[in-house]
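Can't attach files on this board, so I'm pasting raw text. These are the components:
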Amino acid sequence: MSLDKDTVARIARLARLKVPEEELAPLAGELSGILAWIEQLNEVDTTNVEPLASVSDVTLPLRADKVTDGGIAGKVLANAPGGAVYIDPTDKNAGGFFTVPKVVE
Amino acid sequence: MASLTDLTVAGLSAAMAKKEVSALEVADAHLRKLDEHRALNAFITETPDKAREMAKASDVRRARGEAGLLEGVPIAIKDLFCTEGVRTTAASHILEGFVPPYESTVTANLWKAGAVMVGKTNLDEFAMGSSNMTSYFGGVENPWKRRGDNRKLVPGGSSGGSAAAVAACMVPGSTGTDTGGSIRQPASFCGIVGLKPTYGRCSRWGIVAFASSLDQPGPFARTVEDAALLLQAMSGHDPKDSTSAPLAVPDFAAAARNPNVQGLKVGIPKEYRVEGTSAEIAALWDKGVEMLKAAGAEPVEVSLPHTKYALPAYYIVAPAECSSNLARYDGVRYGLRVPGKDLIEMYQNTRGAGFGKEVRRRVMIGTYVLSAGYYDAYYKKAQQIRQLIARDFKQAFEKCDVLLTPTAPTAAFAAGEKMDDPVTMYLNDMFTIPASMAGLPGISVPVGLDKDGLPLGLQFIGRSFDEETVLRAAAALEQAAAFKERPAGY
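---
Top answer:
Structure tokens for the assembled complex are below.
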């Protein structure tokens, strides 16, 4: 499978990655190289082979539906890159918001 | 007494138990080494104040008679483990300024056992790489050099800083994570022991995720016994990681102290004799088989027919999981934010500027193989191959107790070599990835030097949750190989 520049631009858009125009062509080459190398998997007959999603034999455990954590809004918001807005500036654990550019006109 | 920084975890523990030295003196001696060898760039963040504080607290505990398994032992933590109040970078620009408000389970377990943190080590960005060259904070230099050649060599990756720090005696032990070989390959390149436990043995909670179905934390040390001691402290069930196994932790150190391989069936997979492996590594492998035979083990030839497909299948599964896991880095909740005219552009600008080249490449491969119309052709196919690989191992373990293979196809290479083509770099992990795909435990043990004077390791792969046999076999090989070489000047 060979990828062209337009496909790479589409993948970048899906992945929310800004890729400069001049990098699209070299990336198309690199990604095509990797995908061509992966093609060798088609040599293997996998008819009726159950896909293996996890090597863990453990059945996912259930726990009681109880709150086990919380009241740490201050910690959750501590790393907000755009700054956080707190409902009550004197009590950060009372809750607050991450800030983002305006999305609703 | 030997210099404090030459001592092993077990040696330091004994010296501190006999009150020959305090944890604070031990910490200071190792902090001086960090200072001395800063040029290796093994650490992203050094934590000398925290180390002294923890060491003082450790001395108090010991005086009270409350010494833990790793009481007062200085260790380094791969900068992929979240450490409360200490910045955690994953060697990426995108986590700029991130200070975790919580502690990963594995590091919490280590502190509970009395260990002392000296710093956070360098790695490939988000653990994606086999050379440590993809770090936003620059590459790490391997303390080893080729004889008569002054070129800097890579320590391997992704846990390159953790491996270099142990090889340079800056610490007796460190933590790493292994997704496709990121503990075992750097251990081989740096002439030390590196252990990847069974998937589920150690909790992944609080470790920056790369490929969740493959990631597993584990230890680096200079002896098999030390690796066992560290693993002992790191392991255990954690309700916060639903894939963490609800199993009791065996006495790993006891297994490592019992290098008895009498009658042990050691499988030699014939598919691991591949082109591209150096003749010296093939010869070392044969020598390893002979050593184990002389110690009473019984070599058995086994077949793992799907070996060659593990690597390409991995390069579907790992990028697919990485593209999902790394979706969280969007400039909203933590790390870097690069403004844009709207929300979407802010995401794109942040991720475009925050991720390095290799990470971007893998996110894009992952996005592509998971995109509409391609899922069955790539992702499902890779999961089916994964099933066949796991089945190969199951069948092999009907005939043997443990497998012996080379760890990596070559010794450490120079910075810049193998950088032109991503696939060439990926081939570094050809011997480690199959066990990762099957979730099995593996260990790399240093066995000899190549003609250039660089260390080479061999790998044992064990049955699921049978680290004890892996450790026993590794201890026997360690004893027989008697590898005592150290990098010059460290």
